[in-house]
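REQUEST ID: PR-0412
SUBMITTED BY: lab tech R.K.
PRIORITY: routine
TASK: structure prediction, single protein chain
INPUT:
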Amino acid sequence: MSNLEINNTLKRLRNSYRLVVMNDDTYEEVVTFRLTRFSVYIGLSTIFVVLVGLTIALIAFSPIKYYIPGYGTRESRTALQVLKIRTDSLEQAIRYKEQYLEGVKKVLSGNSPAQLDTIPVNLPGTEASTE
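STATUS: complete
OUTPUT:
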């Protein structure tokens, strides 16, 4: 059954039709076209692809792209990256200073004892010899 439907569809795509443009006053044929459904489909698809390609090319290679929201100039993007790096480094410097001040406050207030380094250091010249 599906084979008959496929053959029927292919026949309908290949059927030939005539498109005639006539002068309304004299009924004279101005232009005549012989078309099939398949050729009309291919023609419309080609026109659609060409129009989309031209629209993309127009936006990509002209100053129109700067009117798209969120798209900036190269200089503004570079400046934004520099500002992000500078902001990150300033935030890190503030964090280090806050940690330092918290440590100084703890030592000065005496609330918590300072953590002492309890790892023994073995220096090669200071070891006691047990001979």
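NOTES: The mean pLDDT is 85.
REVIEWED BY: pending
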